[in-house]
Amino acid sequence: MKKQIAVLLVSSFALATLNGCGGGSSSSSKNSSSANSSSSTINTAPLNERLSLIAPNLITAYQATGLVAHIDGGAEIVSSHWQQISGPEVTFLAGNSQVIGFDVAEAGDYTFSYSATDSTGATAEQQISFTAVPNSSSEQANVRLDHAVTEQGKVSLRVDSSVPDSLFNVSWQQVAGVSIPTSSMTVQGQYLFFDAPVVLEDELLEFRATITTEGGQQLSDTAFVLVKNTAINNSGYFPDVVERVVSEDVYPYISNTAYSNALVDCLYNNLIDESCLFSTLPIIAKDQSASSNNVPSIETIMQRVVVSHDWMAQRFQQYLETSPVSEDIRRLLKAVTGIVIANDVRPSFYWAATGAIYLDPANFWVTPQERDTLNDVPDYRSNFGRDLKFIVPWRYVKDGQNYLNRSNYPAAYRLQRSTQDVQADITWLLYHELAHANDFFPPIRHASISASDSPLSYVNRYDVSSDTLSQSYPLTSLEMKSLAQVSFAGQSANNTQKSYLSSDVESFFRPDDATDYYSYSTTREDFAMLFERFMMLYRLGVSADVAVIDVDNNPDFDVHWGQRNRINDATLESRTDYVVRTIFPEVSPAQLLADLPQQENMVRGVSWFDNLMADTENFQAAGTIKRAQASINDFRFGAHDEAGRPKLPKSK
């Protein structure tokens, strides 16, 4: 065991004996119709007396560990800063949080300083030291990552072995803090997921993972999770409309700008219940102080970025500086009020109520330390459509190879992602999300947007481009539209839908004019998918595959029907032309598509993996490894972002 809390006196208890007490389970909520963050007894002692820095009793070299800044009631901490003073250098990426997690570099003495400011403006600074002892074991467990979370937020912890692929069994146990009921916890292999409880003041939890290796050796490690009390408006946009409590550990990446004070207040908090006026936070198109050829500068865009960790903004900026489609992306960003990249954004989405895009940082990480800060809670839609007898997977392909390669980087291997793979993971996402933004705020309307409007009041008053697409060039398959509500909106499948095979779905899908199954989820997604698919092919030469595959008795995932470059099917030309011209009026898809790779059919009865190569002689070599590693769960869920966007709140 690596950690035992030295400051708090607690006892260990098995996960199976946990019961609901203390702060309660994730289903609880604060009983208020407005902001509520006060505890029943206010501690009025100075901040320095309420503040305790917590380190484990025992820390060994090369293991993951954490340090916690815990306050005993009173005014909450609103600003944190950690700094390493001495010892072998370590990498921690949440220096603005009350908890930092990191891997100990080597045996030795370490000292860290922590400074804080609370909501009254009081400040305090303390230091904490520990000694990491040598580790004699050839293998060890590492739970990542010690971190802070806002009450009711989603928590994920992951345990790895220092020897990848040696895990045979994993068990989890809560050993300290407010009891989390077992019914509120989910264990999936190496992962533990739960919703943070409601608390009246900051509460420190601790969890232990024990792994059994294939050789029968048992190894354990623990991690801290600090649950932070926060102000929550139960009628606020995020708690009420989006139905999620968001992290309070977010901040403008660049401070002291014209809009830095408005970014968090208008875009990402648990109190906001009105759409901010454009006079307070306009779309970027209205801020042309630093632009060239009507393209916003990178500096202008970075002044609109809100993050939970600095590295997220740094990777976004690197992308804008190096991507071959940077100019496209910067032009598209003119339609947004801001960019939020935070570790509790999952999945990505655009929201017309705020005018901002919200990006999952899983698309941006490069180093394993950055990867450790991500929230691995599965997309809430992952189980949708499990009663259906077919799947409709998609992928991007370039030069006969998968273009998106996240599966090449298992977390336990501590790998660094290539620039090419990171850029690929970001580009399709931005083309998609920014298509949504330009659907609501197309370039032709930018000049006429009034400062007295808000994003919400504007979209409630004017037509949306995707509505015109639906009226002029409608999708006609009612069966596909209904099935999409099962797969992407969580509706229950009826008996008829449960009986459909791939042959049925082909007959619904193939004659219609959608690029993808996801296009049927909403008219907004139909619009965005057309733009995304065209731009990926036009700008980068990246083709898109889509197929229909039976689930039952099909271990090799043989394709019943599928196409590559469906965007270049002649029947889709008018729809594509309308969407792309709405966003980029100077681009003429009807003229360009003739010179782009043409639509081609997949080979029926051949595995999805072996259909990767355009040269059928290379099918088998291309697909063998991927097919061996695959399971049906890898294909069940194929949505891009949050289908239909979060619903729009009512205007006040």
Describe this protein with a few key phrases:
652 residues, alpha+beta, 6-stranded antiparallel β-sheet, globular
Share of β-strand residues: 15-25%
Indicate the radius of gyration in whole angstroms: 25 Å
Number of helices: 18
Overall geometric form: globular
Low-confidence stretches: 1-40, 615-628
Class by alpha and beta content: alpha+beta
Mean pLDDT: 89
Largest sheet, in brief, is: 6 strands, antiparallel
End-to-end span in angstroms?
54 Å
Fraction of residues in H or I helices: 10-25%
Q: In terms of quaternary structure, what is this?
A: single chain
Strand segment count: 28
Describe this structure in words.
The chain is of the alpha+beta class and 652 residues long. The chain is 24% helix and 23% strand. The chain has 18 helices and 28 strands. Strands 23, 24, 25, 26, 27 and 28 form a six-stranded antiparallel beta sheet that branches. Strands 16-19-20-22-21 form a five-stranded mixed beta sheet, with helices on both faces. A four-stranded mixed beta sheet has the order 2-7-6-4, with no helix packed on it. Helix 10 packs across helix 14 and helix 14 crosses helix 15. The chain starts with 46 loop residues before the first helix and ends in a 16-residue tail after the last helix. The N terminus is likely disordered.
Topology:
Blueprint: H1 47-50, E1 51-54, E2 59-60, E3 64-71, E4 77-86, E5 99-103, E6 108-118, E7 123-133, E8 141-144, E9 147-150, E10 154-161, E11 167-176, E12 185-188, E13 191-195, E14 203-213, E15 218-228, H2 237-242, E16 251-252, H3 260-267, E17 291-292, E18 295-296, H4 298-302, E19 305-307, H5 310-322, H6 326-332, E20 338-341, E21 349-351, E22 356-359, H7 368-372, E23 390-391, E24 394-398, E25 401-402, H8 419-440, H9 455-461, H10 465-472, H11 478-489, H12 495-499, H13 502-509, H14 523-540, E26 543-550, E27 561-564, H15 573-583, H16 589-592, E28 600-601, H17 619-629, H18 633-636
Parallel strand pairs: 2-7, 9-15, 19-20, 20-22
Antiparallel strand pairs: 1-3, 3-5, 4-6, 6-7, 8-10, 10-13, 11-14, 12-13, 14-15, 16-19, 17-18, 21-22, 23-26, 24-25, 24-26, 26-27, 27-28
Helix pairs in contact: 5-6, 8-14, 10-14, 14-15
